[in-house]
Structure formats: structure tokens, C-alpha cells
Write a structure and sequence with these properties.
single chain; 341 residues; Elongation Factor Tu (Ef-tu), domain 3; 3 domains; binds FE2/S2 (inorganic) cluster
Length: 341
Amino acid sequence: MSPINTATDLSVQPNASNSPVARGDLTIRVTRVVRHTDEINSYVLQRIDGLPLPACEAGAHVDVHLPGGLVRSYSLCGDPTLTTEAYEIAVKREDSGRGGSRAMHMWVREGEILRIGMPRNHFRLAHDAPHHLLLGGGIGVTPLVSMAHALHALGAPFTLAVFARSARHLALSRVLDQAPWRGNVQVHFDDVPSPTSPATLVANAPAGSHAYFCGPEGFMTHVRNACQAWPAERVHFEYFSAPVKADAASARSEADVFEVVLARRQQRLQVPAGKSIAQVLQGAGVAVDTVCEQGICGSCLTPYLSGTPDHQDTCMTEAERATHVAVCCARSHSPTLTLDL
Ligand code: FES
């Protein structure tokens, strides 16, 4: 999913002992690494103490703490019924990224011991849907594969449509070929002309379907536009990185100064232009967990009591936004925002 820190020199293998702080909740060993394409590896993670991992539902992701202090969030792509035994993630190497995926590919081998966070899930299946349309662009297929396992186990009707540049770029192709639900899978390649697009699949979905999608920015924009007439509760998505903000209102909001009140600490803090609420809180000694700093991972969600947040995240539902704010990226429409801290 998302890059977090600034560019990292990977010419020397980072050492876990160089990490400023040992973070993460669970210590795991990488027990299997599988190369799927020139750019995509999958990694199986198991606890080193042999205890079960926390169970989690399809759509969950974990933060992986890499040697050298990098932290990256990756969606779980395995069968959710097996998550207490092992987590599985798939990572696409982004050579122009900021180092996390390159570090995974260059340094993480079978036997490596790493720390991971507890799983979080902001991309859940709706269990009352008459049909589930899963649309994955590129490596965005990973959480949808986990959803396909879960839906198959439930006997729920679904279609998994995967869009990739070409056959040689297809993520998790062996899983898609061999899964017991492979009859529900459609694969579309950019280099093979086809009348089918994510938009045509949305337009032709059975009545009442729920759509779930994950992929690169252009793919996300295309599918969100295609779903515009659908009720929000039937549209579920997860971004790799924050969508580009182009509108003037967003730029104005970034420039606004406002105040946060920490209700339980009885403290007031100014949030200036150019600083996030999270940065202001951390500067005042308030611990806030931030991983993506782009409103996509959910690590910084904080309950609020009053005020009108200007939500900038893409990870919360409207119901969640009524009670929580992503302090890494939110601003405030009201002069004061009162947090339950
Ligand atoms: S740090 Fe990821 S949502 Fe705020």
C-alpha cells in the first residue's frame, strides 16, 4: 500500500538494531517468499513463538516494520480462515517509490524476523449483499483475493475482475488459476483489446450489488466515476496512496489555522498551516501512531467530541467519520475541534 518515510538509501542492508525504536506488536518470521512476476513477491509471515496470529476478516492490512525504521502497510491476501496460522502479503516493487517495496524485495528473505502491527480493516465485506463485484487493478487485487476466499466459504455470489498490463504483470496468477473459486474470476489485459472495462462491469452488475475496488489512481478514478449513481453504502474501496487533491477548497483548507482541544488533558493547541494535527499532537508529547500520513491506513484515527472536521482521508466510512478523525491529514471547518484525548 502506502509509502511513509522519505527516500531511503538501500545500497547498504539496513539492520534492525539501527532502528530508532523497536515498534510493532508482533514478532514474526518470514517463512516463505514466492516470486510471482519480475516485480511481485509474496511473503508468508508466522509468529516466532508458535502462538496463533490474531484472526482477521478479508480486507485487513498490517503494518510491516522493516529494518532501518521504514514502516509500510500491506493488505493480507491469504484465505482469512487461515489467518491465525499465517498472514500472507504480496508486494510490488516500485522502483520510483520511496524505498519500502524495494527494501522488501532486496532484503527480506525466508527466515527474516520482523515486527508487524496488529491487523486493521477499513475495507470490509458487506455480508447482506445479493452480489459482490470485486474489481482489482494491478497489485490492488491483493485484498480482493482474500475477499474471494471469504465469499466462496460463505457461498455468497461474487465476481472477481482483475485488470493487469499484460499476462506477465498479473499479480497472484497461480492463486487465481488454482483457487476453488477460479470460475468466478475474469482477467483483462491492457494489451488484449476487450470491450469489457471496470465501468461496463459496474453498469451490468446485478441489482443491489456491492462494488469493492483497489488499484492505482487512474483505475480508482475510473471505477469511482462508474459507481457515482450507486448509494455510498454499496461502494467500498481502498487506495494505495492518497488521491491527488486538485481543488482550490482543499488548498484553502491546508492553509487554515485552527485549534484542537484535548478534552481529557484540558489542553488547547494551535494547528498552523503546513502542519498536521498529528504533528502538533506529537510535538506536544501526545503519542499518535502514524504510518501512512496520507489518510489511507487508519493508524491515526482519533475520536472527536465536537467541531466539524474537514475529513481528508479515504479509509473511513461516513458512519466512522461521524465519530473519528484521521489526524494525519484532516483539517477543521470549525475554529475549534475537540478531540477525546
Ligand atoms: S497515518 Fe494512516 S490514516 Fe493517518
